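Title: Request for sanity check on Ceramide glucosyltransferase prediction

Description:
We are preparing a figure and want to confirm that the structure record we downloaded matches what your pipeline produces today. Could someone re-run it with the sequence below and paste the raw structure tokens into this thread? We only need the token string, no images.
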Amino acid sequence: MDTAQALALASGALVATNLLSILIAGRRLKPTGAAPPEIEERPSVSIVIPVRGIENFSTETLDRAFRLTWPDYELLFCVAHAGDPIVPLIEAAAAAHPHVAARILVGDDRISANPKLNNCVKGWQAARHDWVVLADSNVLMPPDYIQHLMGGWRSDSGLVCSTPLGSRPDGFWAEVECMFLNTQQARWQYAGEALGLGFAQGKSMLWYKPMLDANGGIQALNAEIAEDAASTKLVSRLGLKVHLVSAPFEQPLGRRSGQEVWSRQCRWSRLRRVTFPAFFSPEILLGAVPPLLLMLAAVLLGDVPLLPAVLLVLAGLYLPEAALALAKGWRLSLWSVPAMMMRDAMMPAIWLRAWIGGAIDWRGNTMTIGTTACELKEAPAGP
């Protein structure tokens, strides 16, 4: 076999791996809006929601939280400061739904450099029930939200969670973020879970409170800079698994700028690099750039025709990805394929940026991530 053939085969192998992940995820996932698994018991549940400031869809996400069909649940809204502008919106939503138990908890417990985890501590401690959901404020909860989470619990579960499903983009860069979240990140997360490599995602996490309390409580999640990474490692140490809901929950995006998408993806990438370096390193092989470069090298070194080779790679990557989105009812528009291409063009630069330490902004908190996990520290916040 000559070099050109070897390079073409290597390109094909990457495309085939991409297709395999789509097939595995597609088999594992149910379409958006599908009924949750049937369950016999419906225990009381506490939902802890850390909030900070008003977001694009705050009124709607708050309203959804009060309209769940679960028979007995409480909502614990955690805010660091009583003057936060989100507080009046929470109070209005609670007044409109007096039948739902809801409390606003104010305070800032500094147990870690993770502002979200610090905000959740008081909610965890105040939770009245054994089953606790840690839910981000921008999750658009369906009415059967709790049933989906409880239905994902198995005999070997230590945690059930959901990756965010991007929706309602306003503008091209929000379309790009949809393609990062959905057919890239969610797809690989579900494919990994199907292969026994499940890892936590902090958007929605269902815990059995007595189990976590017996192993350090919520404070144990400060072992890593990201609480979902700490959750994954804790569950693994206990010999249990992280499982995902049958279909991910929606996160409406609204408008996004290119800088916002770049900053957010770089932050997540750097967090993955310091918490799971062995899994992060091969991410450079994902996306269209590696197989395209390999195929272009094959064209230069052999007699492979350029245009058919490039089109074959692109079709092998993007047609199955679009088919997955269509089959599962995820965001798909005329901008989706161009957004996929922009995402893939960004991915190598994001991967390289992840290896460089520096400051990041995490919901208004300036933090420093070093070149190794032991160098994580909180930096002074700006004015």
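Thanks, this matches our download. Confidence is low (pLDDT under 50) at residues 372-383.
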